[in-house]
Amino acid sequence: MSESTQSTIQGVNSELEFDFEVDYFGSFKGRLELPLLLKGDSGTGKSTFLKCLAGLVKWKGDLSCCGVSFRSNFYRRIRQRYIAYLPQEVLFAAETVRDDVKWFKKVLVGFDGKKFEQFMERFKTLELVDKKWSELSGGEKKRISLCLMLSLDRKIYLFDEPLTGLDEKAIDEFKKIRKELFEAGKFYVLVSHIADREFDFEKVVRIDEIIFPKANTTKIEQSC
Q: Mind listing the domains of the chain with CATH numbers?
């Protein structure tokens, strides 16, 4: 990590600390610095870990991130204020991109329509806003999904394989944006199969360093 990057986060709590268990699955335990690049073989628990952080999988134990304690009974409220999550496969709420943007504005706290347009311009997708999702390619859907997620004002961003389906230009743009997030005091966990050398300041951790699967667990998850 460069000196300029280090100075950006001086005095800011950037720790992700956790010790929790998921029924019929196993436990996760660790104390890590964000931003984080999480790697590992397919089916070893990376996606499940992100879903736990996003409050989409029930767990028992302790979890804190950037000084905020995440308790299950307050998770929904905390998640709306602090967490944005991009799964590998996004389910869209409406038929067209524009209608989904309207849904985001109405339902999700902190969605910024102006930022969405700016991200759409950066990812070269602004002309697709009136298209039906069914008319778009996988790469186009992924770029617009990133724009929707990044337009949410959150402290922590969870990316599950965000680069899959992106071309080289879109990947370069994402690299710039993730650095801008960090410099703005935002943090993220990034799951990706890309080579470690593609990123210059994330802490790289393998999932098998933080997961303790149950003895009879052979294939933890199908989509990782």
A: 3-213 (3.40.50.300)
